[in-house]
Amino acid sequence: MPLVHSEISPEKTQPDASPESLRRVAVASFIGTAIEFYDFYIYGTAAALVLNDAFFPTLDPVNATLASFSTYAVAFAARPIGSVVFGHFGDRVGRKSVLVASLLLMGLSTALVGLLPGYGTLGIWAPVLLILLRFLQGIGLGGEWGGAALLAVEHAPKKKRGLYAAFPQLGPSVGFFAATGVFWLLSAVLSDDAFRGWGWRVPFLLSFLLVGVGLFVRLRISETPVFAKVMDAQESSKVPALDVLRRHPRELLLGAGGMIVAYGLFYTATTYCLAYATGTLGVSRNTMLGLSLVACLFLAAGTWLAATRSDGAGRRKLILAGAGLAVVWGLALFPLLDTEQPVLMALGVGGALFCMGVVYGPMGAYLPELFGTNVRYSGASLAYNLGGVLGGAVSPLVATRLQSAFGSSSVGWYVSAMAVVSLLCVLALPETRERDLA
């Protein structure tokens, strides 16, 4: 069913959107996503480096790595559940209060991983509790992105939605940079025994501090004017997720398909490549973490450039360009990694993350624009996180098996195949930048 839009433009629904309030919203959406993705990414880094030894010491190396990545994938399975739960209240109660709740759940679950004893102390309960905390992380993050994106997009003037959506979209770049930087610093200053014994826990414990910062920022923002108008008119959906499935199944499934390449690129180029380079190629942990820091800059550049230009060039066109480039880059990634030359390895990972950024940047405005206001939180969140299940949860697991059975080049073909799927899905969707959100 096509979307029905009001004739009232976003600008007219936002008469009080002063430059100061817009800046506050941009900062709040950016800081919130940066903190939540920091929490999410430190787990991926730890899964690649130490969780196999700490929680699965009785398994052989390949199966221990797979078990570690499996706990990592649990959060992706939980994220659509978080989208339904937080989306329900976000579409009925408001964006702001739900974002505060998601931040608390994500931050506390992350910090508790840092306090969790390993297998040597708790036995089988250690990995069980680890999986539970990872599941709660996924629930929290499942509600985060949609709310943060809507916070920016629904406050922004119509012609600048891509620009304001760029701020929450930069959160993952900064969160990943911070997560990698903390691990790199600890790896550089601690002995290997100290790092594996207790050092890896420090990034998780820092989440206690970051939650406080995020709460301070988010409690100072107001509800979005577009959603406030829906509440005033008593037009909120009773069961938003069900309405999305009934009224917007095409937008939901194709939007999720469009996100596959972004997730696949990111988690292959970061989590899997970190494990592959340090485990299979024998590249030092410090070197790979340093290269990952450089690659973060490519991700941030691609995200910002594509998001800000999508207001003029169109969201769809830029997403298609990023997916098309990813088809080619997937085949170049592992030949560059296999050279074991730091500059070429950085180019391989950085190029993959740049492609991801070009797709990911415009998605901050594109997915919300696909859905009506009364189901927008649920619809955008579900599309975003279903793409995560298909592209992010399984990528490290599939890549580990493919490399073990067929060599590294097969992983590159897998990445390119994901890019083709996303390209076809976005081709089947319309351009949205001229749509009114009211």
Q: Indicate the radius of gyration in whole angstroms.
A: 21 Å
Query: How would the global form be characterised?
Result: globular
- Regions with pLDDT < 50 over 5+ consecutive residues? 1-16
Main sheet, how many strands, which sense, barrel? none
- Strand tally: 0
**What structural class is derived from the secondary structure elements?**
mainly alpha
In percent, how helical is the residue content?
Answer: over 70%
Q: Work out the helix count.
A: 20
Q: Give the SSE order as H and E letters.
A: HHHHHHHHHHHHHHHHHHHH
What proportion strand? under 5%
Straight-line distance between termini: 18 Å
Name the average pLDDT.
85
Description of the structure:
- The protein is mainly alpha-helical.
- The chain has helices spanning 10-13, 19-49, 51-55, 61-92, 95-115, 119-122, 125-153, 161-189, 192-197, 202-205, 207-218, 225-232, 240-247, 249-281, 285-313, 315-337, 342-369, 376-393, 395-406, 408-427.
- Helix 2 (19-49) packs antiparallel against helix 11 (207-218) and helix 4 (61-92) packs across helix 7 (125-153).
